[in-house]
Amino acid sequence: MEAATAVQRFHYSPSSWIDWRNFEGKPRGSLRYSQRIKENKRLRVIALSHLQPDKRRDLRQLSVSDKNSSALLETGDLLHSPFDEELVLKRKAEEVKPYLNGRSMYLVGMMGSGKTTVGKIMAKALGYTFSDCDTMIEEAMNGTSVAEIFEHFGESVFREKETETLKNLSLMYHQVVVSTGGGAVIRPINWKYMHKGISIWLDVPLEALAQRIAAVGTNSRPLLHDDESGGDPYTVAFNRLSTIWETRGEAYTNASARVSLENITSKHGYRNVSDLTPTEIAVEAFEQVQCFLNKGDKY
Predict the structure, then answer these.
(1) Number of domains in the chain
(2) How far is the first Cα of the chain from the last one, in angstroms, to the nearest whole number?
(3) Cα(15)–Cα(50) distance, rounded to whole angstroms?
(4) Are residues 117 and 253 in the same domain?
(5) What pLDDT score does 168 carry?
């Protein structure tokens, strides 16, 4: 009854905001002001507990400019703001960090799985440095892009440079989150270097990967953009990804921790993996790393 009353009280028009900035400058010692803040916070918690995931998803992209976490209201329900996600991420990073002992983390996964985006979020939350393996290879090759390396020197040269880069990262750096190339997992020697830290597999369904790649194009992906099989971009991407998966799928299971986007989607009650935010994936990555550490480091 109390929850229902709270939601009814919060029934505003779709364009309504609760902006905590309206309270700025009010007398700090005012009893009425303090009671109003406490009541708003209490009702906010009640309403959040009854929030529908699909409504939270629909307006997730709307930003909250106020650093004091303005609460968005829509169709009578209070929505989680990006500020709430950041709090969860920060708390989870603080829980994991003491057990890492400065070890680096290596994100592995198929092309388009979000390793760079999620890696940057994790690095920032931990206070780590972020490194992109492909970017380091390009810099070592005087700015030659990965696609150009494949075209002019061949995949074997790229793979050698990739192994050299992972070796240097494992020897020279600590407290780094590394985004690896999709094919880094196929060479056993690379696992030797990555297992000096903690490896994390971002497991994304091929259908979702194909949708992402078809949307942005394949020019930067040398193993895909030369495909001449014909068909629409999604079908071409999906077929090629399926072929690549056959040679790499088992190798990804060598990772210390697995982050299944399908599992996260189910846990949050979303309809598909595209509803997930990178921050939610990063939080799950920290949780899986923590599970791995609690079980005992096997490497």
Answers:
(1) 2
(2) 53
(3) 21
(4) yes
(5) 95
